[in-house]
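Sequence and structure are no longer studied apart. As an example, we show below a sequence and the tokens encoding its fold:
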Amino acid sequence: MVNKRAAHMAVVYAVDDNYVLAMAVSIVSLLENSNRDIDYVFYILVDSVLTEENQKLLGMIREHYENCKVQVIDMPESIFADVEIKGGYITKSTMYRLLIAGMLTDEQICVYLDADTLICGDLAGIADVADGKDFVICGVRDTEVQKNAAYIKGIGIPKTDTYVNAGVLVMNLDQIRKNNFTEVFLKNIGNNYYFNDQDILNKCCFGRIGILDAEYNFFSVNWQKDSAARLVHFAGVPDVKPWNNLRCRSAQAWWDTASFFKETEIYNRAASAAEVYMRNKDWHDLFVRCMDSEKVYIWGYTLDSRRLCDALMLKGIRVECFIDNDQKKQGEVFGRVAVCGSNVLKEKKESVIINTVQWRRNEVNQTLYDMGWTVQEVLQYYPKTKEYYRVLDEKYVKDEFYEFLDWQYDINNIT
């Protein structure tokens, strides 16, 4: 919240070392769109000591912007060590939100932002809704979660209309401390809610939640270039993150902001990683590699892998078998393709294996490398999710449509 007398705003992020670039871009976007008469203090809650190159990013921000301070707070590794986090792409650092009031004892109110946000307008008025009120937190309604009224009521929240997304919050730290809310938050950790600390905050603060205008937390799947959003939130699967998906509508704006760091190694690695991510989305390249191989295996037996098998066979590519270490799946047959254990992977000559696992991809890759498979022989399959198409920039729609026809129906002669 902006203190009109002191012109001060406290902004909090909680990240691990892998998300610092995304957070740094978010900070730069905020400062570039901010009221320069306001002094910003950024508190960064991290789960380990930042690498030297990540510290350099924050140092660049300090040197360039006179109206900000950046303070890194190292969180003990033991905190939330035993907590089960739901959602394959979410880390334990998300839980740090529950501890902010106790960490920032000199602040009365703060704005919490997820690192996967891009600020497009001035946030100076974001906390006005809390003026003179006894709200504990304020946020934008999470309309997707609100659709599941049975779930919300099932975790003990009587009504759905004030359930908010925790990626952008105004937090009344003074009220949290006075009413011992932190203790209440922590008592609910063991419930293993699907939306983790977001559910905890909504349950514990029910009745004292203020509602922010939607422009302060606009999900990227709904974002258009001419929208009035002050903040775009890349919430969800990797396909909606602009540092992964170069074809999403928000990619150009994010990379333009990220160019602030273009002279750094971490920026260059991110740019290279995005190119690899998009190459792994290229079905044509996958088909060619399989056509040039004597044997093709698919690791993982899921809906996605079965769709891949269908597409390969449509192209005349024979799949030897699915590989899955789940013994309950072994012995099943899809079409004429059986599900086997990894013990069949003995003959690697002129062979490739396609890793279709999404959340344990690196673990599977390492297993295959340990078995003697090379990086060139282990292909990566990244399905294009519905979110990929929902955030697709309109200039790529035609190309994606033709590729989809080729993938699904082997139609590749349309001009």
Notes: Residues 1-6 have pLDDT under 50 and may be disordered. The chain has 15 helices and 16 strands. Residues 339 and 377 are 20 Å apart (CA to CA).
